[in-house]
């Protein structure tokens, strides 16, 4: 009996030993946590990834097992497990080597590719930050201060109606905005503070809600600075940019803090100076507890003002009355500002359960003067309009992630809750004269909008095959008080929506993954639309699917491709420039995405992304079913040099094909191809650089619209292309000092 008892105890001990979990922390040489590192047990073949705070828990381990730890951009490390409660593993940074990347080991291959792009071709403007998303095109048409017009997957997204954008978990899109639904002004982000760009196309992600139809883009700022830095740039058109990033705590253990500031001014290439200036202030503090809980505090303030020449009619350029950089009404322009406070907390509740939460507050103010039709509506005073709002945003997001096993199947369940509450006072649309006299108020009132969401996302890992079903719930409350009405009345509507998602992933080989994504998404309509139409079509749905691959056919080449389909329901659209509601019919889009990243040698990289889209309205006759300004073919790419004997830089191009500007394609928005160049040389702590936008000085139109307008001397109106000219050859020089 005694021998049986000893044998039983040994078996139990063996089982417990094999079932042990090993907790660890992965950091870099600066003692900063590393996210998405891959930890592989070569003995038991179990694996794990490190979280945002560098923590990992790997199952089925025991003393003596060999662990392999890898992260692209760092030297792979091998260790033998010892009997310690928590491992601390330091990875040494090195140059990116694409041949070291295994697709099967990446937590998010798309995110890894964007990290490579950011590292190889750093950004120094908010426009360049947005262009890091493959297939996303942007255009500026209001003096540099207005949010860019966005194009993605056959959508003219305007300023953000069909793409969800956030920074550090804080939404950028503005609901029921004075100018347009989803208006997304990302200019409060200082590009040098961006650490990661997480993006996804389609509406397949449970965490992403309102405006996530064509896709989402989430920016994360740096938790720390490797060095402090001062940068100064000057260029043509009286252009000036200065940036400062200052590390406040240096080598303080378990704490980081830094501040950043940016100032920009320029007159632009226009005959009427833009008089543009922008000031950005940003601060961040990060604290890690002894248990590796992470507390983050961020604060920022941004203010901007500008004048603009607006969109000009093609006929006036053709007849020589004005140049491409002239104006019909140069009294356009505006002012805007935003102040943000954001607190986030990340904690491991247990070895298998973590929680992440953030709470935010934003104050936002906006004033914009525009004139698109000149003297069409008012032949005496002109058609200048004024749009204004003052907004407070309150919100909180919480997500709990739990890892467990169902037999041999690993299961990851993430569930979350969110709240966003917008209070917009004195939302105004008025007719004005010379930016000084109000002629008529068209819309004026207060908007109050609330969105509560909940989601659950599960990933069943069967080894090479993963299934990820998800469900999202959204509740909306819309309220509007029309100040132009004699009697006080609160108009209100509510709506709830369920959005299911279902995604499949198959890792056919270590360097080949196939996926099928599907899901329902939506974007909310403007509160004024909702109450005006009695709650009809409050949350128009999108239905989409992606069939794609991520493939490394050769060690230094990564190819990603997708076939996709998207259907968007009927909706009513609030036209902020006119204060009216217009119906928009059902639309169908299908397309192909293709991208590649190729490392020619240790310091030379090539990348390109191409998209083809067929976008049409369903309910119109053939030939009259074009979706105005929907891009059908885009191509971007370039060559980049990364730290070759002190030199870095690159040559980049972007191409946008001709596209229909109206429903019957009788008016065409001309395409363009623009090439940019930059070169930098670093000596010790000083970097000298030059950058050239539009290297070959091509004439291109940055934004174009089919608009009906009338000039002061015209008896009849004309509908034709009105455009904002793209930047001509533009040279600037930069000096940076790190300390």
From TrEMBL:
Q: Where is the TonB-dependent receptor plug domain?
A: 107-215
Where is the major localization of this protein? Answer: membrane
Q: Where is the signal peptide?
A: 1-19
Pfam families, per the entry: Plug (PF07715)
Q: Which Gene3D superfamilies match?
A: TonB-dependent receptor, beta-barrel domain, TonB-dependent receptor, plug domain
> Do you know which InterPro entries this protein is assigned to?
Beta-barrel_TonB_sf (IPR036942), CarboxyPept-like_regulatory (IPR008969), Plug_dom (IPR012910), Plug_dom_sf (IPR037066), TonB-dep_rcpt-like (IPR039426)
Keywords attached to this Swiss-Prot or TrEMBL record, sorted alphabetically, are: Cell outer membrane, Membrane, Receptor, Signal, Transmembrane, Transmembrane beta strand, Transport
Its membrane topology is listed as: Multi-pass membrane protein
The family database entries (PROSITE patterns) matched by this protein are listed as: TONB_DEPENDENT_REC_3
Kindly list the places in or outside the cell where this protein is found, as annotated in its UniProt entry.
Cell outer membrane
Query: What family does this chain come from, according to its entry?
Result: Belongs to the TonB-dependent receptor family.
Name of protein: TonB-dependent receptor plug domain-containing protein
């Amino acid at each position: 009996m005694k021998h049986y008892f000893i044998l039983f105890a040994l078996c139990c001990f063996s089982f417990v030993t094999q079932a042990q979990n090993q907790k660890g922390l992965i950091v870099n040489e600066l003692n900063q946590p590393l996210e998405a590192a891959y930890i592989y047990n070569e003995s038991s073949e179990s694996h794990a990834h490190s979280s945002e705070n560098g923590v990992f828990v790997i199952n089925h381990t025991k003393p003596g097992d060999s662990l392999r730890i890898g992260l692209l951009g760092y030297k792979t490390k091998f260790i033998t497990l010892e009997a310690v409660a928590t491992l601390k593993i330091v990875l040494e940074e090195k140059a990116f080597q694409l041949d070291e990347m295994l697709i099967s080991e990446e937590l998010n291959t798309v995110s890894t590719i964007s990290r490579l792009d950011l590292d190889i071709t750093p950004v120094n403007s908010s426009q360049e930050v947005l262009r890091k998303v493959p297939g996303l095109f942007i255009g500026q048409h209001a003096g540099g201060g207005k949010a860019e017009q966005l194009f993605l997957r056959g959508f003219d997204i305007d300023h953000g109606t069909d793409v969800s954008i956030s920074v550090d978990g804080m939404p950028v899109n503005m609901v029921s905005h004075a100018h347009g639904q989803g208006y997304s002004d990302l200019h409060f982000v200082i590009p040098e503070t961006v650490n990661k760009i997480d993006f996804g196309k389609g509406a397949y992600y449970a965490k992403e809600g309102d405006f996530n139809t064509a896709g989402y883009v989430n920016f994360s700022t740096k938790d720390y600075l490797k060095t402090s830095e001062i940068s100064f740039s000057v260029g043509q058109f009286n252009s000036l940019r200065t940036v400062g990033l200052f590390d406040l705590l240096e080598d303080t253990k378990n704490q980081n803090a830094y501040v950043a500031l940016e100032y920009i001014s320029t007159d632009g290439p226009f005959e009427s100076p833009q008089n543009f200036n922008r000031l950005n202030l940003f601060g961040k503090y990060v604290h890690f507890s002894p248990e590796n809980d992470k507390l983050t505090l961020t604060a920022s303030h941004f203010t901007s003002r500008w004048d603009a020449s607006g969109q000009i009619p093609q006929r006036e350029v053709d007849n020589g009355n004005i140049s491409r950089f002239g104006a019909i009404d140069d009294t356009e322009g505006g002012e805007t500002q935003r102040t943000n406070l954001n607190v986030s907390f990340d904690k491991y509740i247990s070895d298998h359960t973590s929680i992440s939460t953030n709470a935010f507050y934003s104050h936002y103010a906006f004033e914009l003067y525009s004139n698109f039709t000149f003297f069409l509506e008012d032949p005496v005073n002109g058609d200048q309009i004024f749009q204004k709002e003052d907004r407070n945003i309150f919100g909180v997001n919480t997500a709990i992630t739990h890892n467990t096993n169902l037999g041999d199947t690993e299961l990851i369940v993430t569930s979350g809750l969110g709240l966003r509450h917008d209070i917009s006072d004195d939302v105004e649309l008025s007719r004005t004269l010379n930016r000084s006299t109000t002629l008529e108020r068209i819309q004026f009132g207060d908007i109050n909008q609330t969105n509560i969401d909940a989601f659950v996302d599960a990933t069943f890992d069967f080894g090479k095959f993963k299934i990820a079903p998800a469900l999202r719930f959204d509740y909306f409350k819309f309220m509007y008080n029309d100040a132009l009405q004699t009697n006080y009345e609160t108009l209100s509507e509510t709506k709830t929506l369920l959005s299911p998602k279902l995604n499949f992933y198959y890792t056919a080989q270590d360097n080949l993954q196939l996926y099928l994504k599907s899901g329902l998404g939506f974007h909310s309509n403007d509160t004024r639309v909702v109450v005006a139409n009695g709650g009809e079509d409050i949350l128009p749905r999108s239905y989409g699917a992606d069939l794609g691959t991520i493939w490394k056919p050769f060690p230094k080449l990564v190819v990603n491709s997708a076939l996709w389909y998207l259907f968007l329901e009927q909706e009513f659209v609030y036209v902020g420039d006119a204060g009216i509601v217009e119906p928009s019919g059902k639309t169908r889009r299908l397309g192909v995405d293709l991208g590649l990243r190729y490392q020619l040698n240790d310091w030379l990289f090539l990348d390109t992304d191409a998209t083809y889209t067929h976008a049409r309205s369903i309910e119109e006759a053939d030939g009259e079913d074009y979706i105005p300004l929907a891009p059908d073919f885009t191509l971007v790419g370039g060559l980049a040099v990364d730290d070759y004997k002190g030199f870095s830089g690159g040559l980049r191009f972007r191409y946008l094909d001709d596209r229909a500007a109206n429903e019957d394609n009788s008016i065409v928005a001309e395409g363009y191809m623009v090439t940019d160049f930059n070169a930098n040389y670093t000596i010790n702590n000083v970097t000298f650089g030059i950058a050239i936008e539009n290297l070959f000085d091509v004439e291109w139109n940055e934004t174009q619209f089919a608009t009906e307008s009338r000039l002061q001397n015209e008896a009849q109106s004309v509908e034709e292309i009105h455009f904002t000219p793209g930047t001509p050859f533009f040279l600037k020089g930069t000096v940076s000092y790190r300390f």
